[in-house]
Amino acid sequence: METGLPVEQFDYDDEYLRNEGRRRADCERSNYFPLWKQLVNLIRSVGVPERPDVLEIGCGSGQLAQLLLREFDPEYVGVDRSSVAIRWAKELNPGDADRFVLGRVEDQKALLGRSWWAVIAMEALEHLVDDLSVLARLRRGTRVFFSVPTFTHPSHARYFTSEVETREYYERKLSIRYIEPVAVGRGLWLCAGATQ
């Protein structure tokens, strides 16, 4: 595992505004859509109950939420620290606008302590200074679907150069059941597991 620069001062609102065209588009027009379709298939492979309770950490502009709401009709809540992203998420998903919460997930004690069928964190955990403490606050046995990068960026607290490195790091808090490289952007690891 490689560590990036301190991320607490990164301006997420500015990052969204600089990439408005691709961040405000429907999910199918996002460059992450192939990753999200792979995620949907991975979720389906474990068997999904009717209206599962799903928390998305780092929901961004609501593009993945749009796909999840369409595919699974979950009891969904998305959290993001960017006010711009949350505003856009509400605009993209107008019938579900009340499902999006502005704030740092680290400060969401009630949400983290709630019983979730799954927690999804696509391109999110690397932005948290102490992602393992967030995972540790989830109830035992919670399914966690997530992706982490293979590359550094000013907003990344860490990135992973190998499957072994990714597994060793996250197995401190999760029982990892799936890790696959995904050729989206500069490269990601798509992972699934459950809290211990």
3D structure, described in words:
The protein has 196 residues and is α/β, with parallel strands linked by helices. It has one domain: Rossmann fold (3-Layer(aba) Sandwich), CATH 3.40.50.150. The protein is 32% helix and 24% strand. The chain has 8 helices and 9 strands. The protein has helices at 12-18, 20-23, 33-45, 63-72, 83-92, 109-113, 131-136, 163-170, and strands at residues 2-3, 53-57, 75-80, 100-102, 118-122, 143-149, 158-159, 174-182, 188-195. The strands form 2 sheets. The protein has a 7-stranded mixed β-sheet with strand order 4-3-2-5-6-9-8, sandwiched between helices. A two-stranded antiparallel ribbon has the order 1-7. A hairpin with a 5-residue loop joins β8 and β9 (188-195). The longest helix is centred in the N-terminal third of the chain and has 13 residues, at 33-45. The chain is globular and about 40 Å long. The two termini are 21 Å apart.
